[in-house]
């Protein structure tokens, strides 16, 4: 099977559906989707792929396999066509999303083999900034389909990404694509922004997309919008959660941290933490706290916490008071307690004002409650360190 052979396709494809596939005018191999110069011939690497796949599938071979390929190819053609209406494209995306979420182990493989991932990314980010601004602002029925198209295309992209090669995202390193990304974030719906945040989050998970993660992290306009629109001025908790995950991902690169602080991310994190303690519901406050702890390695971040003042909060909590409230929470599994204590150690070690604010915010009671709880030994060790540190104030 290692030699490069050419076989007549009629010698190995005996099923009516194989012939139907070629008779329908398809010029690609029905198995690998590679283009065939002559539809009557198939190279033996294609045969080897088919045989290996058939052996792996064993008794689970799906007799409708080629029919599925034909259906997916038709959906792809619908998305690529300039003659098809947005309404039909939205319907195609809904089918793609339903199929990509199915339990079949081969469905995602087929989507990727057919090139759906780069196609979806191009459809979302290939337009010009002006087009995105204009269409997202209009209220015409056709433009509402455009918004739905973007939402569904991003949703399908996020479903396929875990199964594909993340370097497909590197198309966003192109200036025009990055500009489109910013325009969508600025003028898109909450669902679009949440999906864009998830794309940012994904870039931090692979060495292949590290450079893209760095590019997002130095994009001042994008960082400011995440901090202000999602974390500080947003009543949508799901969108705020997506923003926290994106900021956490960007902060994983040390090179990004100074810029994050400069664009107001510390204020956004504390606002989110304060809001979550008031709601007393499960949130990503522990992740926000861990992210803040990473940023506090910078002097500018320490100053931002101490100078923070949430004017929109009726209780007028300052930054240190917000951290104190995370030290111990009733009916909590103490997630976030260790990072909260760690943040306070960093701040109080350098600042008398921070120590005074922590004490006035009730940190001593919080620490004593934490020491009596079932938190980890490491958290209790840090709590004792903070208690010793606070003695300097007296």
From TrEMBL:
Catalysed reaction, written as an equation: S-ubiquitinyl-[E2 ubiquitin-conjugating enzyme]-L-cysteine + [acceptor protein]-L-lysine = [E2 ubiquitin-conjugating enzyme]-L-cysteine + N(6)-ubiquitinyl-[acceptor protein]-L-lysine
Biological process according to GO: protein ubiquitination
Residue ranges of every copy of the U-box domain listed in the record: 85-392
Pathway terms, separated by semicolons: Protein modification; protein ubiquitination
Top-rank taxon, per record: Eukaryota
Pfam families xref list: ARM_PUB (PF25598)
InterPro entries noted in UniProt: ARM-like (IPR011989), ARM-type_fold (IPR016024), ARM_PUB (IPR058678), PUB22/23/24-like (IPR045185), Znf_RING/FYVE/PHD (IPR013083)
SUPFAM superfamilies documented for this protein: ARM repeat, RING/U-box
Keyword presence, Transferase: yes
EC class: transferase
GO molecular function: ubiquitin protein ligase activity
Enzyme Commission designation: 2.3.2.27
Swiss-Prot/TrEMBL keywords: Transferase, Ubl conjugation pathway
Job of this protein: Functions as an E3 ubiquitin ligase.
This protein's name: U-box domain-containing protein
Lineage of the species this protein comes from: Eukaryota, Viridiplantae, Streptophyta, Embryophyta, Tracheophyta
């Amino acid at each position: 099977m290692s030699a490069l052979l050419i076989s007549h396709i009629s010698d190995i494809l005996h099923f009516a559906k194989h012939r139907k596939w070629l008779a329908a005018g398809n010029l690609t191999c029905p198995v690998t989707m590679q283009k065939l110069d002559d539809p009557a011939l198939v190279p033996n690497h294609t045969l080897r792929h088919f045989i290996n796949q058939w052996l792996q599938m064993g008794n689970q071979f799906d007799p409708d396999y080629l029919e599925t390929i034909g259906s997916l190819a038709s959906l792809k053609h619908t998305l690529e066509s300039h003659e098809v209406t947005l309404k039909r494209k939205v319907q195609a995306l809904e089918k793609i999303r339903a199929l990509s979420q199915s339990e079949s182990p081969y469905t995602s493989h087929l989507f990727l083999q057919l090139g759906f991932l780069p196609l979806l990314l191009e459809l979302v980010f290939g337009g010009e900034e002006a087009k995105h601004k204009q269409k997202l602002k209009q209220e015409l029925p056709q433009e509402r389909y455009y918004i739905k198209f973007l939402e569904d295309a991003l949703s399908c992209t996020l479903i396929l990404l875990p199964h594909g090669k993340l370097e497909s995202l590197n198309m966003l390193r192109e200036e025009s694509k990055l500009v489109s990304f910013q325009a969508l974030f600025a003028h898109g719906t909450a669902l679009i922004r949440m999906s864009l945040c998830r794309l940012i989050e994904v870039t931090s998970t692979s060495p292949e997309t590290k450079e893209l993660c760095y590019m997002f992290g130095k994009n001042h306009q994008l960082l400011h919008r995440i901090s202000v629109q999602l974390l500080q001025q947003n009543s949508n908790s799901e969108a705020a959660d997506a923003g926290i995950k994106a900021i956490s991902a960007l902060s994983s690169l040390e090179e990004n941290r100074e810029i994050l602080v400069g664009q107001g991310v510390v204020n956004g994190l504390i606002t989110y933490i304060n809001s979550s303690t008031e709601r007393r519901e499960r949130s990503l406050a522990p992740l926000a706290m861990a992210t803040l702890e990473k940023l506090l390695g910078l002097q500018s971040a320490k100053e931002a916490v101490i100078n923070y003042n949430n004017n929109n909060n009726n209780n007028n909590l300052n930054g240190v008071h917000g951290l104190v409230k995370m030290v111990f929470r009733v009916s909590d599994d103490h997630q976030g307690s260790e990072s909260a204590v760690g943040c306070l150690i960093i701040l109080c070690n350098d600042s008398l004002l921070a120590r005074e604010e922590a004490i006035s915010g009730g940190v001593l009671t919080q620490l004593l409650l934490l020491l009596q709880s079932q938190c980890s030994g490491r958290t209790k060790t840090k709590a004792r360190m903070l208690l010793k540190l606070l003695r300097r104030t007296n």
